Amino acid sequence: MNPELQRLRALAAVMAATQTALDVAHRTLRESSAALLRTGDATLAEVSEASGLDQGELLDLLSRNTPGREPAWNQPRITGLS
To answer: What is the pLDDT of residue 77?
Structure first.
């Protein structure tokens, strides 16, 4: 096999593995940032500065429903009981 083709295949494999690692790291960064904001341990500005994520993206993450943490308007209510 052509050595240059082998080199290209190896480089493509390294790039694919690196992209996967970056995707996981970005997802973890977003999840950790949202969790930190939900607990109130840091301000939006602090988390934005530390994570490099802009405040709009962080607010978007906070506005998404997470299992077990549905907004109050989405909670089932018992009606008809007085």
So the answer is: 56
